[in-house]
Amino acid sequence: MRASLIQIAVDEGEPVNSRRARVSSLVREVAARERPDLVVLPELWTTGAFAYEAFAAEAEPLEGPTYEAMAKAASDAGVWLHAGSIPERDPKGPLYNTSLVFSPTGEPAAAYRKIHRFGFDKGEAVLMGAGSELVTVRTPGATLGLATCYDLRFPELFRGLVDAGAEMFVVPAGWPARRREHWTLLARARAVEDQVYVLACGTGGTHAGVDQAGHSVVVDPWGEVLAEAGDGEEVLTVDLDPARVAATREQFPALKDRVLGSPAPRR
């Protein structure tokens, strides 16, 4: 299974419509050049993760312009596309930070509303609602577990995704440069403790004056970094062996020794 992470550099002077068209073209170009099975984009790349004042102005319905553009890009490219996240406007509720996943035919495969909102008492934490559902996506290569940026700090979410069958965590983000070391550390920690691949795709550039960490990273089930980007716009393409997840869990069966965890489902 081959995955390409497209680390978008957000330029505040670039109109959202222009960036949407540019990223759509990038998906097609990367797919044609790298021949991946899966393409991953970052969090809130249309607006910038720290451009709080733009959330309401640029929020769109789930099946809005970004949805339409990404569905077409996935279909044109013939790839599974994790299209990063958008500021979603729910007509019956608040805004949400919502990730979109499309199949190679352009059909919607999943939508995940970010559960842990960053900002404490400002920003995303007060401007957006919290999701409540764990989401996985079954692809021919592996089952993907979906999380977004700040979620990376909450291991219980990822344990839940493992219990739901996830073999790869896909984590789009708009992570700030001043906490870049946490980004890499946490991505590796989630891989090691859950014995999965982690595909963590960040942004470059600056969001509302906040320099972005970049450094998208792919980590294997032993915690080894397979590839890491720099600070700017970049594409990481990595060949992954989903069988290594089961092999790692067999060689070092730590997950079998869990004592505390998710309650057993009622039958």
UniProtKB/TrEMBL annotation:
Residues 1-242 form the CN hydrolase domain. Gene3D superfamilies: Carbon-nitrogen hydrolase. The keyword Hydrolase applies. It holds the Pfam family CN_hydrolase. Keywords: Acyltransferase, Hydrolase, Transferase. Signal peptide: none annotated. The keyword Metal-binding does not apply. This is Acyltransferase. Belongs to the carbon-nitrogen hydrolase superfamily. NIT1/NIT2 family. It comes from Streptomyces alfalfae.
